[in-house]
Amino acid sequence: MAQAKLTDFYPSSSSNGGGSVKSARTTEDIRIPADTDRAMTVSAFPHPRSHSPHASEQTPLLAGSTPTPPPPLTAGAGFEPPKTRPYLLRLSFLFSAVITWASLAFLVLICLAITHSQFVYLLPSHRGSLFLPLWLSIFSFLSGLLSMIYYSDPLDFPAGPAKLFSLLSAILILVDVVLVGVNRQLRLEEGWLTLILLIINFVSYVHSLAATSVLPQEDAPDLPIYQRQQALAEQVGFFARAGENLKSFFSLLTITLPVFVLQLATTVALALIMLDLILRAYDSTVVHQQSTDLYKINPSSFSVNSPSTLRHHDRSDDKGIFPGDFRLHLDCRFLGTPVREPRYIKTVLFDSDKGIPASVESSWAVDAMEHLDGNGTAYRLCIYDRPGYGLSDVAPSAELAMTVRSLESALVQAGVMAEIQSAVPLGSSFVLVGAGYGALVSRVFAARNPSVVESILYLDASTELTHFSPDAQTLARTWRFFFSNILGAVVSPLGIKRWLQIIFLPGRASREGRIFGTVTSGLNAPILRAALQESAEAHRHTSRSYLELKRSRKTYPDVPAIVLTSKEKLQSKAGSAWEQSQEWLVKIIIGDSLVRWDEIKAGGSRLLSGPVGRDSAGKALKQLLARSSDN
């Protein structure tokens, strides 16, 4: 045992109440273990008065009193052990990070799927326009990101408004979940993708509400940013206070106000989406009334590049809550004088121009065929809406081969193809009518099924020289396309145009008008999505649609064809290129099978936009049907 002798002056008082005197006192021998840390010195024993709140010169110190234990050994003066964040705080922050990254992954995949159709297969099933899932992925990403910002700087974060916005957003999302789950049409269109993103948003907003309500009271003092703010508040002096005020003002401009505006805008957008879903659920009764004309198309069941091998199959209904296929609208009806036992069946297959459902633009064909008398020949008109148009769901791709193969599948399920194929030797066949972009579809269909095509009518037909020309994609056209098509398509899930029409134009607002809306009306999100898909294949000689159209020249049938072109389009700015494309169609594609090529003063930019053009198209259709009956 080591031995040390410590001497100090301690105050003492007399036992008889006399005056206090200072006396020297020698401490008892203190034995210190030999293995005690050598760094401990006499200073490790502090003065008693420094630790006792009642210590004074009048306080006696008994010789047998136990000295105050020394403070724990530290790494240096002024050092404080780091505080560890609470376990729940770490877990909550990690949860926000997971939501943020998951939402970002969905956002990237959806953006890629909108511009490149092959990425659609990486997403859960979805038959809609993909723009509603795009908005939902943005909302969940922002919600998770704002939660992470709140954890890093809770003092500048507008926690009060954030609670209100999170609560309202969670309620709106919950209503959306109920609408999508209950309404059959919404459930089939939106599928698993929208439902998953709705659930992610609901969980994210509930978590944000809980975090903003609990964190300031319990866990905020343990955050580093909170401790730094407290240190700044304790500073004194003019410059210190000025610097603190400047930082607070900067935080107001960069964090508080932007977060408040962003949360307010998100809540308003969610309210608009909920109202649009309610309107879509109301409009879904139109689809239910014509559900007998919808046929299920399974893209995975056929190869888009294989030759057409059409066989009759029974129509199958939707199976499962969220099927992975899509539905195609095909309406076939017999017109003209009824024939009990027709010798021939002439089927007119009409495909409309880009951005216009065939159901909307087919009235001229109905008028032309309504009073036909074929003397033993039955006339049938088949109107089909390309994927995304009218009542048809959006397909994973708008490539020409995919579009034609989907049409073939619908014709097989409707029994039309079986009737024609079984009577081909007797003269039953198709008379194809293609307007604008629909002419490209008609050409590919004729090349894949040359034995059942009898004649073709081209109305303002698009060709390789116009639709796929790289020179046609100028900078001005790109900007115009962005603001008129892309921007309108992206904001379509908010339903702004639809509700403005209902409020300010109640006489023109109808469920049929919203379902069968054109691209220019901006009322129908699926057709905007389909138009973007078709435009993504345009102006590139490397696109699959161009390559398919190029391959179709080899098997294009040698059948009679009539070409009608609008004079107004020939006299437009792109009139020279359009005239060149029509000449190329007549000389290279049709050749000697041309019946006639007429330029019609239609009274509009499109041939079918005016009564003169529609009447000319009806006469040309009657001429082709008469030729087929005579033959």
From TrEMBL:
<feature type="transmembrane region" description="Helical">
    <location>
        <begin position="130"/>
        <end position="152"/>
    </location>
</feature>
<keyword id="KW-1133">Transmembrane helix</keyword>
<dbReference type="InterPro" id="IPR029058">
    <property type="entry name" value="AB_hydrolase_fold"/>
</dbReference>
<feature type="region of interest" description="Disordered">
    <location>
        <begin position="1"/>
        <end position="77"/>
    </location>
</feature>
<dbReference type="InterPro" id="IPR019431">
    <property type="entry name" value="DUF2417"/>
</dbReference>
<feature type="transmembrane region" description="Helical">
    <location>
        <begin position="249"/>
        <end position="275"/>
    </location>
</feature>
<keyword id="KW-0812">Transmembrane</keyword>
<dbReference type="Pfam" id="PF00561">
    <property type="entry name" value="Abhydrolase_1"/>
</dbReference>
<feature type="transmembrane region" description="Helical">
    <location>
        <begin position="194"/>
        <end position="215"/>
    </location>
</feature>
<dbReference type="Pfam" id="PF10329">
    <property type="entry name" value="DUF2417"/>
</dbReference>
<keyword id="KW-0472">Membrane</keyword>
<feature type="compositionally biased region" description="Basic and acidic residues">
    <location>
        <begin position="25"/>
        <end position="38"/>
    </location>
</feature>
<feature type="domain" description="AB hydrolase-1">
    <location>
        <begin position="355"/>
        <end position="483"/>
    </location>
</feature>
<feature type="transmembrane region" description="Helical">
    <location>
        <begin position="93"/>
        <end position="123"/>
    </location>
</feature>
<protein>
    <recommendedName>
        <fullName>AB hydrolase-1 domain-containing protein</fullName>
    </recommendedName>
</protein>
<dbReference type="InterPro" id="IPR000073">
    <property type="entry name" value="AB_hydrolase_1"/>
</dbReference>
<feature type="transmembrane region" description="Helical">
    <location>
        <begin position="164"/>
        <end position="182"/>
    </location>
</feature>
